[in-house]
Specification:
- The protein is mainly beta.
- Helices cover 4% and strands 69% of the residues.
- It has one helix spanning 3-13, and strands at residues 21-41, 52-53, 63-73, 77-93, 106-123, 130-149, 155-175, 178-191, 194-210, 217-234, 238-256.
- A hairpin with a 2-residue loop joins strand 8 (178-191) and strand 9.
- The longest helix has 11 residues, at 3-13.
Length: 257
């Protein structure tokens, strides 16, 4: 087999040797939490009630979330890297014990969430108009909750960094100067008694402002992101459970080459 034929076959496998595309998109979102957080001292008798909802902790408000996403596409592979961080604080009343702080105590609460995502999909429907990709990735969820009684005499915190492998599905379509994309990922794992489930849906639309993919270009991005996170772990002296959902719109500016 001569070199020309080998090169032709390789190019066909990489969607006609399409030029690599790189984009980066900083964004600003408004995300609202829902769900429950519990943190129990397992050396003491279990209380009758375990969960404190975000409403109990006065955290059920939308807050600004800064993020950035980068995409690299070369032929069939499409790599997405993203990171975002959010913070909430409130003044509520515990519905259940939180560590050594008893239920019915007035508390000041801080909740921090950072999500770092890598998703690699491979296009099974390569064309300029449509994209359908299957793949895998990892999401690192960094969740920290700190609760302090109103007298500032007791402080309890739950801090968990959970790297979660995920499966990913990407679907996209281009119409005129508009690109629509859905990037779905998730996985449920159970390791050594600790459990974690992560589900995410990222839906967005991009309006091309100038240029075209493969050259200098810019687009306006608007989207909606839904994240469901359920983590349970036990370190022997304490057990924590985080069952939270975050959802809300975001917008940004995508620049590419």
């Amino acid at each position: 087999m001569n070199r020309s034929l080998v090169l032709a076959l390789a190019c066909a496998a990489l969607a006609s040797c399409s030029a690599p595309q790189f984009t980066v998109a900083p964004s600003l979102g408004r995300f609202e939490p829902e769900g429950d957080v519990s943190y129990i001292d397992t050396t003491q008798p279990l209380p009758a009630t375990l969960d404190n909802s975000v409403e109990d902790l006065d955290l059920a408000e939308s807050e600004n979330t800064l993020g950035v996403r980068a995409d690299f596409k070369f032929g069939l592979p499409h790599l997405t890297l993203s990171t975002q961080a959010s913070s909430w604080d409130g003044n509520g009343t515990l519905n259940a014990d939180f560590g050594g702080i008893p239920a019915s105590t007035a508390v000041d609460t801080e909740l921090d969430l950072a999500l770092h995502r890598l998703a690699l999909t491979f296009d099974v429907l390569p064309s300029d108009m449509f994209e359908l990709g299957l793949g895998f990735g990892v999401t690192v969820a960094d969740v920290e909750a700190q609760v302090t009684d109103s007298g500032n005499t007791l402080t309890e915190s739950a801090d968990e960094i959970a790297p979660l492998p995920v499966l990913a599905l990407r679907a996209g379509v281009r119409v005129w100067r508009l690109d629509f994309e859905a990037l779905l990922s998730g996985m449920s794992i159970d390791y050594d008694g600790d459990e974690a489930t992560y589900l995410e849906a990222d839906l967005n639309a991009k309006l091309a402002l100038f240029g075209a993919p493969g050259s200098a270009n810019g687009s306006l991005v608007v989207g909606w992101r839904q994240i469901d996170l359920d983590v349970e772990y036990d370190d022997g002296d304490a057990a924590a459970a985080v069952d939270l959902s975050f959802s809300g719109p975001y917008f940004g500016l995508q620049l590419g080459l």
